[in-house]
């Protein structure tokens, strides 16, 4: 059905490495894989196997769980996106991060786990949560850069900030020129 690879950490692992909870849920106990150093695993590549056909309205969702926390959604693969490298932002142990229930609620997990679940595609928030967060951080950093630039040219009129009319043009030209001069400049925004 599916396989996973931990980049630079493992060979491909197939579904038999996971414990099947029910027809649509599987769990990989990280204690068997890396022990207490589960948080050193920062990425997972999940892929559908060639002979498996997932309905077009379904996805294989990937979740992670630190000891004492709930499962946190990381991303998904579909028939149209049969593989993905997903970031694993492990929640703090003991935190109550998210939704998927693969273990009994009254028994806190003693080890970190990766869960895989067949779910309705429409019900998932995004196929790649980490990519959305990177885009959000990028937008915030660019906005902060613009605000700081505008602030250096603005005046105060009562309770209003007054900026020159051409301030956006001036900022954008400066931004483009700096990006052309220094290729590392834009990489600083993406971190």
TrEMBL record:
A Gene Ontology molecular function term of the record = nuclear import signal receptor activity
User: Can you give the residue ranges of the Hikeshi-like C-terminal domain?
Assistant: 135-187
One Pfam family from the record = Hikeshi-like_N
| One example of a Gene Ontology biological process annotation | protein import into nucleus
| One of the record's GO cellular component terms | cytosol
| Start and end residues of each Hikeshi-like N-terminal domain | 17-123
InterPro entries, sorted: Hikeshi-like_C (IPR048364), Hikeshi-like_N (IPR008493), OPI10 (IPR031318)
The organism sits in which domain of life? Eukaryota
Q: Which family does it belong to?
A: Belongs to the OPI10 family.
Protein name, entry field:
Hikeshi-like domain-containing protein
Q: Which organism is it from?
A: Olea europaea subsp. europaea
Upper taxonomic classification of the species?
Eukaryota, Viridiplantae, Streptophyta, Embryophyta, Tracheophyta
């Amino acid at each position: 059905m599916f396989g996973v690879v931990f980049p630079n950490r493992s060979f491909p692992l197939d579904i038999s490495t996971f414990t099947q909870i029910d027809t649509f849920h599987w769990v990989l106990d990280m204690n068997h894989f890396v022990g207490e150093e589960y948080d050193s695993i920062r990425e997972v590549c999940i892929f559908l196997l060639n002979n498996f056909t997932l309905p077009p309205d379904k996805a294989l969702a990937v979740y992670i769980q630190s000891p004492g926390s709930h499962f946190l959604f990381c991303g998904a693969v579909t028939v149209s996106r049969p593989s993905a490298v997903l970031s694993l932002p492990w929640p703090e142990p003991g935190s109550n991060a998210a939704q998927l229930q693969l273990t009994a609620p009254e028994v806190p997990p003693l080890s970190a786990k990766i869960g895989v679940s067949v779910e309705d595609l429409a019900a998932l928030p995004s196929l790649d949560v980490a990519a959305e967060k990177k885009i959000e951080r990028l937008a915030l950093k660019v906005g902060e850069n613009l605000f700081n630039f505008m602030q250096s040219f603005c005046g105060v009129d009562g309770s209003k900030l007054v900026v020159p009319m051409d301030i956006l043009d001036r900022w954008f030209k400066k931004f483009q020129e700096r990006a052309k001069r220094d290729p590392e400049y834009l990489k600083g925004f993406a971190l």
